[in-house]
Design goal:
Strand content: 15-25%
Helix content: 40-55%
CATH architecture of the largest domain: Sandwich
Largest sheet: 4 strands, antiparallel
Number of strands: 8
Strand order of the largest sheet: 1-8-3-6
Radius of gyration: 17 Å
Length: 182
């Protein structure tokens, strides 16, 4: 996906704005299982996933609970840690080899100071509404699965049942039955 397309999904940007944005980002590659944000660290960047996938999880030493699943063509970050600038309670790890564009918080502030157009980047922070809606609604397992298939269809193609079930907060056996009936 081109930088112009990434930005146009958020708002109106001039050619000059696109050039400024390019100057403030870093393209990075992560290997499978490479950690992008360690639990306890403070999130300092947002990432646009050009290819690959990531997962956010909490670990109690025995089991990992999936907090979020991230796929190609979406922004990724730890919302609470980034916004409140406090230690992350989750870890973000590459599920597979992935390529991202990284925009640091300081570079985001710099862009906004240079042009009011970059205030459109605030839309990046609204994407947590999907997760909030999913868990604030009284959805049964079938409705949860259908909702996630409609909102983020790549999730069901990329991640194994066990991870999707953990994310949806249902038993893997339940999710398997739901998928079998579709």
């Amino acid at each position: 996906m081109l930088i112009k397309e990434i930005l146009s999904s958020l708002g109106q940007f001039s050619s000059n704005d696109i050039l400024k944005f390019r100057e403030h980002i870093v393209q990075r590659t992560f290997r499978k299982n490479e950690i992008i944000l360690e639990r306890g660290a403070i999130c300092q960047s947002v990432y646009f996933i050009l290819s690959g996938s990531f997962f956010q999880y909490q670990s109690n030493g025995i089991a990992e609970t999936i907090i979020d699943l991230h796929v190609t063509n979406e922004w990724m970050f730890n919302h609470t840690s980034l916004i409140e600038q406090r230690a992350s309670e989750t870890t973000i790890k590459a599920f597979e080899k992935s390529e991202v564009i990284e925009l640091s918080l300081s570079n985001l502030h710099s862009l906004i100071a240079r042009s009011p157009s970059f205030l459109f980047l605030a839309k990046i922070f609204n994407q947590t509404s999907t997760r909030t809606y999913l868990f604030d609604s009284s959805f049964n397992p079938i409705q949860k699965y259908n909702y996630i298939k409609n909102v983020k269809p790549l999730i069901v193609q990329v991640f194994p049942v066990k991870m999707i079930a953990s994310y949806l907060k249902i038993a893997p056996e339940t999710l398997s039955r739901v998928r079998a009936n579709h």
